[in-house]
Amino acid sequence: MERCYDIFEKMPDGSMVWRGVVTGYENAIAALKELATETSNELHLLHLSTHSVVATINENSLKQMAIVSELSQQRN
User: Fold this and answer.
1) What pLDDT does residue 4 have?
2) Contact in structure between 16 and 26 (CB atoms under 8 Å)
3) Looking at residue 39, what DSSP letter applies?
4) Residue 57 backbone dihedrals phi, psi, to 5 degrees
């Protein structure tokens, strides 16, 4: 059985807005990355049953991941 993860967006005023629920870790990370292309606000992936923050991302960290990926491909 796969876990369900909730995605929240932290607004500039500090409030949190629920953006949806996704089943499965891989699907949740993909959804988080997709949402990060639509907003520069922080996005948080939570597993509410265990009160765990699984991942946090924003537009800047998504760009940094792309740069690191590109650099590692250039080295190979």
Assistant:
1) 96
2) no
3) -
4) -150, 155
Q: Cβ neighbours of residue 60 under 8 Å, at least 6 residues apart?
A: 40
Specify the 3-state DSSP secondary structure of 20: strand
pLDDT one-digit tens code per residue, 5-45: 999 999 999 999 999 999 999 999 899 889 988 888 999 99
**Chain centroid to CA 74:** 26
Stated pTM of the model: 0.74
Integer Cα distance of 69 and 74 in angstroms: 9
The DSSP code sequence of 46-75 is EETTTTEEEEEE-HHHHHHHHHHHHHHHHH
The neighbour count for residue 57, using CB atoms within 10 Å, is 19
Q: Read off the DSSP letter of residue 58.
A: -
The 10s digit of each residue's pLDDT in 43-70 is 999 999 998 888 888 766 655 555 455 6
